[in-house]
Design brief:
Radius of gyration: 29 Å
CATH class of the largest domain: Mainly Alpha
Distance between the termini: 57 Å
Helix content: 55-70%
Structural class: alpha+beta
Number of helices: 19
Strand content: 15-25%
Number of domains: 3
CATH architecture of the largest domain: Up-down Bundle
Largest sheet: 5 strands, mixed
Shape: elongated
CATH superfamily of the largest domain: MFS general substrate transporter like domains
């Protein structure tokens, strides 16, 4: 049984931020010595690139799966799993005598990148009220910090030691971080009850991600029109087209697509993709422009000097994290995302016209780092403000996945421009000045798109700041119909505090089961809203060991009315409802008292028709269905001239 220890937010932040930096380090650490690793293992440059590609693929596949499991079964538990993957993968790569073993090790260690979205989610749970900005800002910056530090560190280590020492160091860091997480991060049990993992959805999504990323990362090498590239693209598209309806139908999906497409989440993830392109451009092109010979328009530096050019950017990102946190707590994520993206635009426009000296390169890279830090500190806050607390890890995981697609796209674009506008000194080829200008211009454009998206984000998104802290209480239950039967309609539960603040919300599964989280014991208002039913509101006093809270829906939304002939009720008359376009919707018969009731259909225009039992007469009325009960009475008219639209009464 896990030991119970008091939460220490500052120490938790330090451990998680260190862990994020470590997993980011291992992601980029092998890039400088990649050619040497390939030579020592007896493979060419193209094959050696799989050492990087394997990590990219496994991180993309592992992140949504591990973060979903973290929401279901406990975040610290899965945090330790990611660090175990880092240790095992690094160990295999360190002792592996063959190229396939090194690739396997790198693939296993790539799963560790899921530590970052899980860590951000833990900070959301543990941080004190209204003080999550600084913690999230620092944790969000660790990816860029680790990637930037990896370049000079790797150069120093490989210059004086064997490249395998890189993997041995990651083994040691994996063990140290595992011990720190076990001791400092409080254990949790997960917020879901009767949880079922969507295995089929996870498998299909994994194949989609691998195929899509192979197209992006290997298309330029294989050829964009090669049969292998086209086959991977078709496979990704076909399986994605099958995966989406499955995820919408399954009770507990791998990815909650209905939540993913709500406006704040969709816009934030889209902006993340474009910011990631701008951010990764800095890491790719800054080191290269330093190494291009002077006579070809570069600075003529060494790979180590190229890595050192990124150090001021890293220092600036660390330094700006506390300020980013305060600004996040004061203004929210929307202005921060917009400001960071706008700063990226300005930085790349500056680099287009000022890049002929080491000072220009360092200053430009540092400004890009500052913009990236501001923007990426905002995205997790925006995501967690919009999704249920029971989905923060998986939602951050999807955001991290989108970020990975952005960096992979950037790599492909940079490679395309570098090859298209290459220059040569007679021995080696380098990206030419036109290549750098083109990539910087694309980065400025993607940052401008991100700024426009940030501006379009809704204002005043509830931040649920009071939902942090150590007193979180999970609340489970079931939404049922009048006869306590399973509710077969989509349903959502909102939790409000007595002063009307949003505490959490959740979407019920196909069996009507829901899971929410409240900040602590006390009185709360639960509002259940289901398609086809009037909302049901209950006031509940939540205890620390809260039992399930079931909510019975009482008033179904429907179309009701009566059919009459000369003022007398007509029994057994057929009542048919169809859309204004002629599509059949529903039908029923009137009872002995001439009344009928039909379930309320989706909003739109409809026609209600009644046919007498013998088929001697029929009547129709138009109806505009909204979000309330409707009453439509149909009476036989005396003659055609007297017939009108009749009476349509809403109550």
């Amino acid at each position: 049984m896990a030991r119970s220890r008091p939460a220490r937010p500052g120490l938790i932040l330090g451990v998680l931020a260190s862990g994020g930096t470590v997993v980011a380090l291992q992601f980029t650490l092998v890039v400088p010595p990649l050619a040497q690793i390939g030579h020592d293992l007896g493979v060419g440059a193209d094959d050696a690139s799989w050492i990087v590609t394997a990590t990219l693929l496994s991180s993309a596949v592992g992140t949504p799966i591990v973060t979903r499991l973290a929401d279901l079964h406990g975040k610290r538990r899965l945090l330790l799993v990611t660090l175990l993957c880092l240790f095992l993968g690094s160990l295999i790569a360190a002792v592996g005598a063959t190229f396939p073993l090194v690739v396997l090790g790198r693939a296993i260690s790539g799963v560790a990148i899921a530590l970052m979205p899980i860590g951000i989610s833990i900070l959301r749970d543990q941080s004190a009220s209204g003080r999550i900005g600084g913690a999230v800002a620092l944790m969000s910056a660790t990816m860029a910090i680790g990637n930037s530090l990896a370049l000079p560190l790797s150069g120093l280590i490989v210059e004086y030691l064997d490249w395998r020492m890189l993997f041995w160091i990651m083994c040691g860091l994996g063990v140290a971080m595992s011990a720190a997480v076990w001791w400092v991060v409080p254990a949790d049990r997960g917020y879901a009850t009767d949880a079922r993992f969507d295995v089929l959805g996870a498998v299909v999504l994994s194949v989609v991600l691998v195929a899509a990323l192979l197209v992006i990362s290997k298309g330029s090498t294989w050829g964009w029109t090669s049969p292998l590239t086209i086959a991977c693209g078709i496979l990704a598209l076909v399986l994605f087209a099958l995966w989406v309806p499955w995820e919408l139908r399954v009770s507990q999906p791998m990815v909650d697509l209905r939540t993913a497409v709500i406006r704040p989440v969709l816009l934030t993830n889209t902006a993340t993709f474009f910011v990631a392109i701008a951010m990764f451009t800095n890491m790719l092109m800054t080191t290269q422009v330093v190494q291009v010979p002077v006579e070809l328009g570069g600075l003529g530096g060494t790979p180590l000097q190229g890595g050192l050019a990124m150090v001021p950017s890293t220092v600036a990102m660390i330094a700006v994290a506390p300020l980013s946190g305060r600004l996040l707590d004061r203004f929210g994520g929307r202005p921060m995302l917009f400001g960071g993206a706008a700063l990226l635009v300005a930085a790349y426009l500056l680099r287009l016209f000022w890049h002929d000296s080491a000072v220009a390169v360092v200053v430009g890279a540092t400004i890009v780092g500052l913009g990236s830090a501001l923007a990426f500190s905002a995205t997790p806050v925006l995501i967690m403000s919009a999704v249920p607390l029971t989905q923060t890890a998986s939602a951050n995981g999807i955001n991290a996945l989108v970020r990975s697609f952005g960096t992979a796209t950037c790599s492909g674009l940079a490679a395309l421009f570098s090859v298209t506008f290459a220059v040569s000194d007679g021995r080696d080829s380098y990206p030419g000045p036109i290549a750098f200008d083109a990539v910087f211009l694309v980065a400025a454009g993607t940052a401008a798109v991100a700024a426009a998206i940030a501006f379009a984000l809704p204002r005043g998104v509830p931040r649920q700041d009071d939902a942090g802290g150590a007193g979180l209480v999970p609340v489970h239950g079931c939404i049922r119909s009048l006869d306590h039967a399973r509710l077969d309609r989509p349903a959502v539960v909102h939790v409000l505090t007595p002063d009307g603040q949003s505490a959490d919300w959740a979407r019920a599964d196909n069996d009507g089961r829901y899971s929410v989280v409240v900040p602590g014991p006390g009185r709360y208002v639960l509002v259940a809203n289901a398609s086809g039913w009037s909302p049901r509101t209950v006031v509940v006093d939540i205890a620390a060991d809260q039992q399930p809270v079931d909510i019975d829906m009482l008033v179904p939304l429907s179309i009701t009315g009566a059919v009459s002939d000369a003022g007398e009720p007509v029994s057994g008359a057929r009542v048919v409802l169809y859309g204004a376009g002629g599509v059949f919707t529903d039908a029923t018969d009137t009872g002995d008292d001439g009344t009928y009731e039909l379930p309320l259909p989706p909003m739109g225009n409809y026609v209600v028709t009644t046919i007498s039992p013998g088929g001697d007469w029929a009547e129709s009325r138009k109806l505009a269905v909204g979000l309330r009960r409707e009453r439509v009475d149909l009476a036989r008219a005396g003659d055609r001239e007297e017939r009108g639209e009749g009476t349509c009464v809403s109550d």
